[in-house]
Design brief:
The protein is of the alpha/beta class. It is about 35% helix and about 15% strand.
């Protein structure tokens, strides 16, 4: 009697080139600004995405180390505060690079603020070439200018490198109609148009970034980083979090 063999097929990826936005809080833990064990865990999941044949770029925040907006409200001059915040993103980017390369990945850290000793200067064509060669590209220092968030920088970079989607990994499951921490009947949206998200004043991404998404027609998936398998599930087109598009 012949036994039938069941073929196990993986769900195909939906996006070929992605930009993952990681906030600074993703790097912290146990009262540490940068927790190497947490960064290693993130890196391992990014490598799993890379193994699927996806071209991966990452924009990192720096809020675990320094928040320019908060410091300026306490009296620090805004431009200086934002410059310090941009330097904090470079620290996170180097930490992520270290984890990825210890696991065998080839990476490049590209900084919008020139610091040749630790990172390459951001050049659009060079960033695209790195992706085409299979390298994981880490964008640091935001836009290189004050008054812009790393969310806004992520949208601009995603457009410049022709990414298919922005994946914003957060601490919440997605976009709700009201605060789920206060209201037990809060409803999460599977999808929103750009204009709907802007009109709702979505707090987990700034309005300027959303406006750029609408102007550039750049879809953005907002989802919970934990479990970290969610990143791969988004790339495979599964219903995770909230998708904001046209």
């Amino acid at each position: 009697m012949n036994e039938e063999k069941t073929k196990i097929t993986k769900k195909p990826i939906r996006y070929k080139r992605v930009l993952i936005k990681l906030g600074g809080e993703a790097f912290s833990g146990e009262s540490l600004n940068i927790n190497p064990k947490v960064v290693d865990k993130i890196a391992s999941h990014i490598i799993e995405i890379k193994k699927e044949g996806v071209e991966v770029a990452i924009t990192v925040g720096g809020g675990n180390i320094f928040r320019g907006g908060s410091a300026s409200k306490k009296g620090m001059e805004r431009v200086t505060a934002d410059n310090i915040g941009m330097l904090a993103t470079v620290m996170n980017g180097l930490a992520l690079q270290d984890s990825l390369e210890r696991m065998g990945a080839e990476t490049r850290v590209l900084s919008a603020i020139e610091m040749k000793e630790v990172a390459e200067p951001y050049i659009r064509r060079k960033a695209i070439r790195h992706l085409e060669k299979g390298r994981i590209v880490i964008f640091c220092a935001g836009t290189g200018s004050p008054y812009f968030t790393t969310d806004t920088s992520a949208v601009i970079k995603a457009k410049e490198i022709d990414a298919n989607i922005i994946m914003k990994a957060t601490k919440v499951d997605g976009v709700y109609d009201k605060d789920p921490m206060v209201y037990s009947d809060a409803k999460m949206f599977d999808k929103l148009t750009y204009l709907e998200a802007i009109n709702r004043g979505v707090g987990i991404i700034d309005i300027t970034a959303l406006s750029y998404c609408m102007d550039y027609d750049m879809p953005i998936a907002i989802f919970n980083l934990n479990p970290m398998e969610n990143m791969l599930r988004v790339i495979r087109g599964e219903k995770i979090g909230t998708l904001v598009d046209k």
